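Sorry to interrupt, but I need a hand with the structure work. I would like you to pick a protein and set down its sequence and fold. Please put the record directly below this note.
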Amino acid sequence: MPRLAGLILSIVLVLFFLQTEEGRTSTFNVSPLKIVLSGKSSSALVEITNQSAEPLRLQLSVSSWDQSPIGELLLKETDEVILFPPLLTVEPGEKRKIRLGAVTPRGVTEKSYRIVLEELPPAADSPTEARNQIRVLTRMTIPVFLEPSKQVASGHIADLTVQRSAASFEIRNTGTTHYSVEQIDVKGTGSTGQPLLTRRLDGWYVLAGGSRRYDLPLSAEECRDLRMVTVEAKTDAGPFNARLDLPAGGCSR
């Protein structure tokens, strides 16, 4: 019984702590949210504004940036772009600037990076109540592009297939610079032209020389009568379109 009573008391104390401690999330703005470096301007300034009532402590770094076929961020350490200072304390209401610069030459293809900003816990000399609060530490990344020697924006939709109850396709970047996909519309019709499928997908960056794959599950009803699928992607490099005609029962093969 004493052991059980001790366990109950521990649970009550934990619940009390969670109820009485106020969770805190720092509020700060970063500008700009996208940086483009060029041969004429290989450096840039980033401004951080602390909008909270407490000092903001940040650790900053730069990583090279690639993407997986499904859009995941692939970050690696790099020394091609440097920033200063790597550690920063911003007082409440204060604005601080960091300087970013490329120390690598431009190439035929655009190079992509991301600034990584990680909020640090309060300093050891902060008031006890500030250090003991439950805090949600912010981590964010900002895209940085180093322009190629010659910019070519081009791309297309490739490998549009419909099989095993799913529509799949890739948006490929065949140019030397990134572009953004604003939205993607996938539509399907039946044998008499009746609409069977209407989906709108969100887009994102497609890096130079990269691709983004999409897999769209289809219902049994959509598959049964589907005879044509079209994909239209609106990008800042122009619209990309693709069409696929299907035989009867082609969706389930």
